[in-house]
Amino acid sequence: MGLDRLPAVGAIPHLSTTQRAAILDQLFEPSVPLHTLSVSLLLEKSFDSYDDLISSIGLQLTELAESSSTSDKEWLESILAAHPRLGQSEIESTQSKAEQAQLNTGKDSSDQSLSQLNNLYEQSFPGLRYIVFVNGRDRSAIVEDMKSRIERRDAVAERNAAIKAMCEIAADRVRRTGVEEDTG
Length: 184
Fold this sequence. Notes:
Layout: H1 17-27, H2 32-44, H3 50-66, H4 70-80, H5 94-99, H6 114-124, H7 139-152, H8 155-177
Helix pairs in contact: 1-2, 3-4, 3-8, 6-7
């Protein structure tokens, strides 16, 4: 369930655990592993802005990506997997559904289906999900991006691209949702 407006960033440390988890769900996607990683950060650290908060979570995700621990990479992959596949017919997240709406336009019979490309991507990068900040781009632009990333065959770059995209999506969601005024 999405928030009408995000609370003022200064109020976040004073919110309940459930409310802080709801902020993470609104910005990223509902993910218990992300809650486990980041809910306490929202209590323990003061942020100057939502951009600062998103950057801090991006840093946590990057630390998982750069870790030599297999379990850290698996933890990151479970967080990334919270994002729905592009073009997926059933998308639970209202925000993701709206963000992906334009992908159903501009279909070309020569295009591989997004479903086929998702499968190829996930075979090329086991454990990863293709994540991109759609940002109004049409289906053909996304298909080309996905193909080039598959052809690059660089799992490290893919983890970094997914983290970057998650943070770009989160920043866009802040902009579209809006933030309550700080009354403190």
